[in-house]
């Protein structure tokens, strides 16, 4: 590890504590960037030269931050994809309904937000199917994309996910916003790593009572106009997957 990274970690530790330090370390290492070379069964980013990008938000619906985020997205007139936690859909079905009414895409983020590789098959299936039904009841939409909590999966969890009719989706740009690194840093991290076909991972909710997504929301309000200025178009995740040369060649039967 370089001296620069080490000094940065120390200063973050002093200023913001361990959570921010771990966030910086994991952002620097960025295992998500290695994703595309792992397996083609999981979608990380679209292989395309077109300046398209997708925003995605995890861990909602949240009664405070999701409506505020929807207002920001409406103001900028861009679509996004929301990976909803089943038990929060159950608690706030009207917010899930509004996400759908605002024409955003909805994905499944399991019922309890547990570590998928640690769950036995039947529980895993239950986590996915219960959430699927709750989303359907609240929004009338059949979700087809699933983001594993904390981005953790194994071959087995991907098998179960596919057996439930879902594609496993991660993303390639993740600024670690739940670690509360500050609005400035969230903006900078996203702008630095976004390229044509990127899938950006952010959070509008969370699984603790103390969750605060103000930094993320302020950052989104700045990221969207800046990416537009750089020529990017915002699309839903399904549209981004359609842009992927690989899935295109599978769909058309080309080799
Ligand atoms: Zn999550």
In short:
The chain has 255 residues and is an alpha/beta fold.
Task: Tell me what you see in this structure.
The protein has 255 residues and is of the alpha/beta class. It has a single domain (41-252), classed as Alpha-Beta Barrel (TIM Barrel), CATH 3.20.20. The protein has helices spanning 3-16, 18-29, 65-76, 86-91, 93-101, 121-139, 155-163, 183-193, 214-229, 237-243, 245-252, and strands at 42-43, 52-60, 81-84, 105-108, 145-146, 167-169, 199-203, 233-234. Strands 2, 3, 4, 7 and 8 form a five-stranded parallel beta sheet that branches. A three-stranded parallel beta sheet has the order 1-6-5, with helices on one face. Bound molecules: zinc ion (ZN). The site of zinc ion has 5 residues, from strand 2.
What are its keywords?
255 residues; five-stranded parallel β-sheet; three-stranded parallel β-sheet; binds zinc ion; alpha/beta; TIM Barrel
- What is the overall shape? globular
CATH superfamily: Glycoside hydrolase/deacetylase
Helix/strand/pairing category: alpha/beta
| Oligomeric state of shown chains | single chain
Number of domains: 1
How many E-type strands?
Answer: 8
The residue ranges in which pLDDT falls below 50 over 5 or more consecutive positions are 251-255
Major sheet characteristics: 5 strands, parallel
What is the fold-level CATH name, i.e. the topology? TIM Barrel
In angstroms, what is the radius of gyration? Answer: 18 Å
What molecules are bound to this protein? zinc ion
CATH class: Alpha Beta
Number of helices: 11
Mean pLDDT: 90
**How far apart are the first and last residues' alpha carbons, in Å?**
41 Å
CATH architecture: Alpha-Beta Barrel
Question: What helical percentage do the residues reach?
Answer: 40-55%
Strand content: 5-15%
């Amino acid at each position: 590890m370089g001296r620069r990274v080490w000094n940065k970690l120390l200063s973050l530790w002093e200023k913001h504590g361990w959570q921010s330090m771990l966030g910086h370390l994991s952002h620097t290492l960025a295992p998500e960037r290695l994703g595309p070379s792992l397996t083609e069964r999981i979608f990380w980013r679209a292989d395309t030269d077109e300046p398209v990008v997708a925003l995605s938000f995890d861990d909602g619906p949240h009664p405070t931050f999701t409506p505020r985020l929807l207002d920001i997205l409406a103001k900028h007139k861009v679509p996004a994809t929301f990976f909803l936690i089943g038990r929060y859909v159950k608690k706030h079905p009207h917010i899930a309904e509004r996400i759908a009414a605002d024409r955003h895409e909805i994905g499944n983020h399991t019922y309890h937000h547990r570590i998928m590789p640690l769950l036995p098959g039947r529980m895993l299936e239950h986590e996915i199917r219960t959430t699927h039904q709750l989303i359907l009841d609240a929004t009338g939409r059949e979700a087809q994309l699933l983001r594993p909590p904390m981005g953790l999966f194994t071959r087995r969890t991907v098998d179960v996910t596919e057996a439930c009719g879902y594609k496993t989706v991660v993303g390639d740009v993740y600024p670690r916003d739940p670690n509360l690194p500050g609005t400035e840093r969230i903006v900078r991290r996203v702008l630095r790593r976004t390229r044509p076909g990127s899938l950006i991972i952010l959070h509008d909710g969370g699984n603790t009572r103390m969750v605060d997504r103000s930094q993320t929301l302020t950052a989104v309000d700045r990221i969207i106009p800046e990416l537009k200025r750089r020529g990017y178009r915002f699309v839903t995740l399904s549209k981004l997957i359609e842009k992927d040369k690989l899935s295109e060649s599978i769909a058309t039967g080309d080799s």
